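Lab notebook: predicted structure, single chain.

Context: the supervisor wants predicted structures on file for every construct in the current expression panel, including those that have not yet been purified. This is the next one on the list. No modifications to the sequence; it matches the entry in the shared construct table.
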Amino acid sequence: MQELELKSIIQVCQPEELTAEEQHLIQLAIEATGRSYAPYSKFCVGAAVRLDNGIEITGSNQENAAYPSGLCAERTALFYAGAQYPDIPVRMLAIAARGTDGELTDEPTGPCGACRQVIIESETRAGNPIRILLFGRKYVYVIDGIRPLMPLSFSEF
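Prediction complete. Output recorded below exactly as produced.
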């Protein structure tokens, strides 16, 4: 039997180590948490994307009593971007969350599996990786493309 070792590289930064553009996008994601509709989980997530042309789009999680009918923040932002600007690649995605106590999470919150797959599709569609910023009050994870989070992902390749 052979073993396959997979390695992911994720930068761990303090917010002040990020560029002004990255800090701004994180701030938009934080603000978007306030527009979440999360009466069931009380876990409010915000996402912000920056397109190659500089347009910024935000999204927030939207829950529903029929759980599969809700939608995550990342997908609301990415689907809006794809619907309104289908030929403009997403360059960067920031994600922030507030826990059930209403406070920003200390640790970065990563996208769920479905959102990771949608990010892969967005990267595939555009032909370039998306810089991902996962915000936490203690630190920020910076990931160049979704592949480090989904090394054996389902794709057309």
